[in-house]
Amino acid sequence: MFDGRVKRLRLELAPEETLSYVPPWFGARLKALGEARAARIAVAPAIDPGLLDGVDPVRAGRDQMPFIAEVFDVINDQTTNWVVIPYATPGWASTVFPQLDPDAALDRLWEELGHVLRLDEPDPSRAWQDRVAELERAASRLNELRFDALHYEGPGTDLTIGLLPGSIWQSSRGTTVDGVEHIANLPTEEVYSAPDPARADGVVAATRPLDVGGSLVEGLRVRFESGRAVSIEADANAEVLVGHTAVDEGASRLGEVALVDRQGRIGRIGTVFRNTLLDENAASHLAFGSAYASSVEPEFHSRMNDSAVHIDFMIGSYEVAVTGITRDGSRVPVLRGGDWQI
Question: Which pTM does this prediction carry?
Fold first, then answer.
């Protein structure tokens, strides 16, 4: 179990040169789970959002924990069936509902989690199978259209992202090498693919706060040139994200592009959960860092982004229009007002 309070003490007291150190047994344990064909359950948040408020953001940007780079080896090898699920904590609840007393905030958070997890359905498992089937139909249509790029336009956003010729759109339903089917994130409302890491140009403004290991990045604004983030600014804690996107060559480039429609439950209730698992499923989003191998045809794996980090940030809302650009330059509406146009 990762302890966020210990992380805060480390950031406050440990020597600067030790902050990027990750004990090797963390990665070795993860790889051993893959070799054993284990099932993995991760609980979010690992660190209550805002727990690192007041910590030097430059120091916070050096400490990647609890993210472990080896997680992408296991995911891409498809050796484990896995899921990330939310669990309400008093600290998280008070961040989401600061106007309520602590007990009422916790009750309210549990109530909203039950709704977005579809636990209020007569058969939650069936409800999720139906929703994932809807997402897979959208992904199938996007794969048929084979866009060369996507153009995002909205408040503070004018960004064009190239796609690889072998980019594959998919949902969070996965299958291990041993044929075990699983849904990787609950809740999940996205379809996603791998962009061309050399082709992103323009500016984008985040529409929700970004939790980076316990530090909340508020009011994020990013400018891309030729695929690289050349400017990262924010109203708060920009230095944390700057530090995380400087760890290697691929960290400042994109490894995921995800689309979310308005049929998902998270966006419709309007709550800002200040947690990426929830907030990324309320709005279309991008991710700095490593791409998922399953979202690229094998012959194009050498061109997908590779990094020791993967950081999702939310850029979509019902005000952000998404347009597909074909290889002959034609423009096809994809999302308008949060509704599919394809």
Answer: 0.91
Contacts of 330 (CB under 8 A, 6+ apart): none
DSSP state of 87: -
Cα of first residue to Cα of last residue in the chain, in angstroms, is 43
**Smallest Cα–Cα separation from 29: which of 85, 84, 83, 74?**
74
Calculate ∠ Cα 310-251-29, nearest 5°. Answer: 50
DSSP structure string for 294-308: GGB-GGGGGGS---S
pLDDT in tens, 25-67: 999 999 999 999 999 999 999 888 888 888 888 888 888 888 8
Tokens representing residue 167 in the block: 């980019």
CA distance 272 to 250: 29
**What are the pLDDT digits (tens) for 203-252?**
999 999 998 888 889 999 999 999 999 999 999 999 999 999 998 999 99
